Amino acid sequence: MPSTKYIIELNETERKILMDIVKKGNSPARTIMRANILLASDRGNKYMTVAEIADTFNTTPTTVHNVRTSYVNRGLEATINRKKRETPPVPAKVTGDIEARIIALACGEPPEGYSRWSVRLIAEKCVELNYINSISHMTVSRILKKTNLSLT
Fold it and tell me: Containing domain of residue 39, as a range?
């Protein structure tokens, strides 16, 4: 039998958690796949090699190795659940301060020659007043909708 770098020995609680994930089928496919890999890798059950597990679950030996490594290094929760992102991929362009200025602008008097504000007019005025470098009229619309503010 080939040597195994990571030996997986699940306790009863972990085995029950993984079996629930597999049997219920409500989890994402990736989570179910990882649970199946860990259950098949368990020394307490019929032991399967990496190649056998990969063939059984239609995946690659690399995936099986990565799941085993993750379990040994980070534990069960970190292995089967997706890591939550700490910060968004792109920081928000419109902050609360800018939103407040847009709302104040919409509540104020419209410019001379206009009877009321439009979202395009507000967007142009925000850029003109250097509140923000550029802003879409749709962003202004979303901000006003969020506060239930109507321009009519």
Answer: 12-80
